[in-house]
Amino acid sequence: MINIPKGTKDVVPAEAYKWHYVEEKIREVAREFCIGEIRTPVFEHTELFLRGVGDTTDIVNKEMYTFNDKGGRSITLKPEGTAGVARAFIENGLGENPQPTKMYYITPVFRYERPQAGRLREHHQFGVEVYGSASPQADAEVILIARAMLGKVGIYDLSLKINSIGCSECRAKYNKALKEYFSAHIGEMCSTCRERLDKNPLRILDCKEERCKQIAADAPVILDHLCDECREHHEKLCKALDAAGVSYVIDPHIVRGLDYYTRTVFEFVSNAIGAQGTVCGGGRYDGLVEQVGGKSTPAAGFGMGIERLLMVMQNVGVQIPPEKRPDVYIAPLCDRGCDVALGLACRLREKGFAVEREISGRSLKAQMKYAAKIGAKKVVFIGEDEIEKGIYTVKNMQDSTSLAMTEEELTEALK
Ligand code: ATP
Ligand code: MG
């Protein structure tokens, strides 16, 4: 027996309806917000993520699935969805179209993390990218899209946390203040944070270690270091959210795990699934397109973890409608009945009905048990007698009544 790799999951047919439901809702939201879908490869040149995501992040440093292909190229399985979209935006000349460009994706994401509840090595994300608008209205739009999606699947009890991490100028000043602060506590921090202190002190605020979190709690706050433009951007976003009636908290500790963010960062956090409560993370990343080789293009977006979304839905008791049951199960009672059943199944399926027919050669009793189990609404019996008379015996599984019907009557009854 070969087992599934650690940190990955199968979706079996009996569970797939939940995914279909979420995907349907994603496409509904996309339609309502006029967002086109973009599909990019599951793997990219490693260089894209080094440049895009940033080489001081955990994702790039520790978590990427990177290998050389047979042509000796360094290839990486997507560790996030945005960099590939930025590359595709440039490569397909999407910036030549009237702007902004709004795109969404549903993609598997691969990170070599320590598997635990809500933390997988392959997970899936619904993501949105809005390119070409520097206005805080675009940030607000992105947040509204995420919120609309969460509402569509019945999740209302989430906190929206927002912050601004400024531009490279305010960040430089802030990093200096952070360095000063953390230097005084270096002995108490984890080894990774000690390294972060020199390379990227902002990352320390994102550390999951308890002792580092405690020290970070009193660290200087970036909102006090924002330049005038960044502060104005942040205030305008808050105003737009107020106007939309969206409640939020400003959380100066949200910095996000990827280097590409500028100004706005946000998270939707649920209390329903324990430690891994962040269902959605996003923000603005005005430097990304240029960083991966395109023209300077303002951009904003988010990624939403579908597995975590499903966990929250389950924990708050969202009822997902089960997928359509078979309209009819066709039970042949003799050899000749098998051929007739096959013809009938083909004709009914062509009319759009969900039809199951016996293909295992079981006894009538076993067939009936099976038909009940799969929830078939009706069962059609085809024996010598039925073939002789050119009719079908149709059992209504809801009330257990049986009727003799012509094919025309059966078709009507199935509607
Ligand atoms: P976290 O802080 O939980 O590690 P992150 O900041 O790494 O999340 P992003 O890179 O912004 O997350 O990804 C967006 C969303 O994808 C997250 O909010 C989360 O819902 C989901 N996600 C991220 N990593 C995983 C994972 N390993 N397993 C399952 N879902 C994940
Ligand atoms: Mg992470």
UniProtKB/TrEMBL annotation:
The keyword ATP-binding is annotated on this UniProt entry: yes
Residues where L-histidine binds: E80, G81, T82, R111, Q125, E129, R256, Y260, Y261
Protein's name according to its UniProt entry: Histidine--tRNA ligase
The organism of origin for this protein: Candidatus Caccalectryoclostridium excrementigallinarum
GO cellular component: cytoplasm
Xref: InterPro entries: aa-tRNA-synth_II, aa-tRNA-synth_II/BPL/LPL, Anticodon-bd, Anticodon-bd_dom_sf, His-tRNA-ligase, HisRS-like_core, HisRS/HisZ, HisRS_anticodon
Keywords: Aminoacyl-tRNA synthetase, ATP-binding, Cytoplasm, Ligase, Nucleotide-binding, Protein biosynthesis
Name of the encoding gene: hisS
Gene Ontology molecular function, alphabetical: ATP binding; catalytic activity, acting on a protein; histidine-tRNA ligase activity; transferase activity
Protein's UniProt keywords contain Coiled coil: no
Enzyme class: ligase
GO biological-process terms attached to the record: histidyl-tRNA aminoacylation
Reaction(s) catalysed by this chain's protein: tRNA(His) + L-histidine + ATP = L-histidyl-tRNA(His) + AMP + diphosphate + H(+)
Location in or out of the cell: Cytoplasm
Residue ranges annotated for the Aminoacyl-transfer RNA synthetases class-II family profile domain, each copy included: 22-321
Subunit field text: Homodimer.
Enzyme Commission code(s) on record: 6.1.1.21
Pfam families (UniProt xref): HGTP_anticodon (PF03129), tRNA-synt_His (PF13393)
Main location: cytoplasm
Family, as annotated: Belongs to the class-II aminoacyl-tRNA synthetase family.
PROSITE patterns: AA_TRNA_LIGASE_II
